[in-house]
Design brief:
Length: 1061
Amino acid sequence: MEEENALELLQRYRRDRRVLLDYMLSGSLIKKVVMPPGAVTLDDVDLDQVSVDYVLNCVKKGGMLELSEAIRDYHDNTGLPHMNNTGSVDEFFLVTKPETSGSPPKRAPPPVHISAPNPVFAPSPVVSLASVAKSESFNSTEVQELTESTEVRELTVDDIEDFEDEDDLEVVDSVRLSRRNPSDAADLVPKLPSFSTGITDDDLRETAYEVLLACAGASGGLIVPSKEKKKDKRSKLMRKLGRSKTDNAVTHSQHSTGLVGLLENMRAQMEISEAMDIRTRQGLLNALAGKVGKRMDTLLVPLELLCCISRTEFSDKKAYIRWQKRQLFMLEEGLINHAVIEESEFRPSSAGEVQRTECLRSLREIAIPLAERPARGDLTGEVCHWADGYHLNVRLYEKLLLSVFDILDEGKLTEEVEEILELLKSTWRVLGITETIHYTSYASVLIRQYVITQEQGDPKTCHCAAEENTIKRTTWTTREKWADKQLGDYHLNFAEDSLVMEDVVLVAMITRRLLLEESEMAMQRTSVMDQDQIESFITSSIKNAFTRTLLVVDKLDEMDEHPLALLAEEIKKLLKKESTIFTPILSQRNPQAIVVSASLVHKLYGNKLKPFLDGTEHLTEDVVSVFPAADSLEQYIMALITSACGEGNIEVKFRKLTLYQIESISGTLVMRWVNSQLGRILGWVERAIQQERWEPISPQQRHGSSIVEVYRIVEETVDQFFSLKVPMSSKELNGMFRGVDNAFQVYANHVIDKLAAKEDLIPPVPILTRYRKEAGIKAFVKKELFDSRMPEEIIKSKEMNVPATATLCVQLNTLYYAISQLNKLEDSIWERWNRRKPREQFIKKSIDENSASFKQKGTFDGSRKDINAAIDRICEFTGTKIIFYDLKEPFIENLYKPAVPQSRLDAIIEPLDIELNELCGIIVEPLRDRIVTSLLHASLDGFLRVILDGGPSRYFSPGDAKILEDDIEVLKEFFISGGDGLPRGVVENHVARARHVIKLHSYESRELIEDLKSVSGVERQRGGSRLGADTPTLLRILCHRGDSEASQFLKKQFKIPKSSA
């Protein structure tokens, strides 16, 4: 509702404004109205853009009105606040809403590079005049004019004719500002806050001179010199511009003596123009007129000057606006922004557009109560508090102190330095300066000027510093002690502001160097290098910070964390802060700063850790808490030292450290734990094997339950191993690998421990005899041709307990599960090991991690070898069992009896197929070919057993070879099974040895006898076997021949008895 009323009121004001302007322009108040370009009548002109003030001025003057100029004046003054005459206090309307925009910014805006003269030195960042545009008190037009007026250039002789009167010399004097070159002495300038109003060094210098005149007037030494008539301006200006450094600044004969002459000298030193000097003196005297009993130094100088100096006393409008702004800004800084009294604040009430007199009266009503607030026990009216608030007073006083230097020879003090310093004491009352502030500021000015002139290479320097040795020594000794105290605990004093610390380090280094330059001090003090000084700061501050950290840790109530672990974490945070915030500053003067701090922290924490390490014997919760934290801290410290030292000096630095040996102690404890856990695993393996029934867990999981239990306990142990967050090396990992590897080897050996040898399943080979029914002949048979087993062994083989085929298949599946999961277990262990934060190898280790003991492959080779050997043995046993045990009667005993054509191999294909289906129904797919190959091998062994060692009841003729060939082909195709069985190549390779024996059966007995004679040594001169057979094979084939030729040869040559059947 209020917004609608405000909008309606604004529209009414605009309408009334247009009606009023139309009346004034259409009537007879103005002689002539000149239309702007493009306009014919007033209807073509936007009256909202016509300046009312401009029109009223034309009405008062009775002159001609140019609407184009009125429009231009309106736009030029748009940014100015509009004034109302509704009260005694100033008020203006803002374009924006304060409640939504917030308070104006207190900080100064970024400086704009303008053509301004360089100051002598910059006590604070100089705010450019462009920032004044942000002020609440002045419009942008005035600021633009002010900026243009200050962008001056160097004067030449050609410019002399442009000056008309004495007041123009003010412009010349303003050009002759400080021409001192900038230098690095800005590092010595205290970082005082900037002024929110944007006042410059020139403003401070001019105001400081006004304060000086007011204080001089309090003692009756202020007079107004008569203004000289216009003379030879060219010669006077040439004297100003042509003054060289070789000339003396001013001779006493040219000026009056006493206070008047001293003030004149200081005016020249502070580069104040004569016109400004005269205006200020006259204004101060006029302000004091009528104030009986009032001292001039108790006046509110800027306010009185604003009241007593009018626009007519300035040569142009721009100079007056600049001067007026300076006085107002100084009032704002002295009474509000940097007031010595801070208990209360005054805010202006509503005021309208008033004339200059009423504005000044309103300003006086606000400023005087602010300035006369009592402080420091003074009485009202005794002191005017307008320039004694920190840091405005210090900045003003430094401008006064700069007048002790010769303006033409900056390395020298003026001859009147003592008188100047004595005169400046009169300003202490106004500026709130004490003796301590005076000496501190004066010493600071002297040192900075000394540094500036030294850097410029001026051979005439040091005069000023030499005359102030006592002040400098006292001041800088105090500064050195203060800086040393601050830096002695920089972790506490500069925790939030490292930039301040950088300045304090600079102060500490410079003060120490300056004090050491004094000959007397040099004899009393040891010449300590900067690096040693920085090292002492680091040592002191680290110890203080460590002590505070101990107190913090003691107060923490953490039940899960050991105090040493908490201390390590806090110290690590301290080091991180040290390396990121403080080290960049300290390393500028000591490159080994981080080495010093890190080494000291390592030592301090080591002293606390050593008793704990000495009492550690087993892995406890405290050990698991402390060891990782301590080791992480040590590794971080080593990383910091390495980053600072590089690879060259790192070993030297490490040798100076007493390492915690965390890894060594931790490794011993971990190995004790690992050994105890491995013993527990072996116990579980024994129990699992004893409880195993070798039955499949499920149709999908066709392995035994014991291997699952073994893996469960192994994985639990591995999980516990990696849950130990203590430091460990490859030795502990290898120890665990060896223990797990041994557990699986024990398991594999337990599986086949009770398995009989496959030879026990094979029936004994019959004694060789001749296949003829003749009387028994006592024959001599060679040792290698007879069965060497005793009858007791034969009985034992018959009575042994042979596992069922299904049991053997479950065992095979279990072993395969063990070896397949072993790969996963190994990969998991390595992945988790590599995922652990790798320990930095800063110190050479005794173990070469590239050795064979630390390869990521082959860690379970022992287990793999034993498990594969167990699988092979069970496969061979299974094949032998099926052929020689389960199919013994149809295969071994009845095949080819009594003759080959009467009992073919086809008869045993069906029972063999039944056994094979049972195998494939239980065995896992990866082992199928392996077990079937063993069955094929056993089948061929049985076939060869029949045709070579078939006993006295079997005989073979050369004509049977074709039948045998057909039978072996049937056996081959059975195992190939049309491509669903074994690969054809594998089967062919196994069948090849049987084909060779069948081929020998196809030879006549005479050929076999001839070949046997050749290989048995009867006819050695003929060479080896022509048929490619050995003696036992040929002999066994002849024993199974039914012809007399073979019988007679065996009887005569080998004494083989005749068969009883």
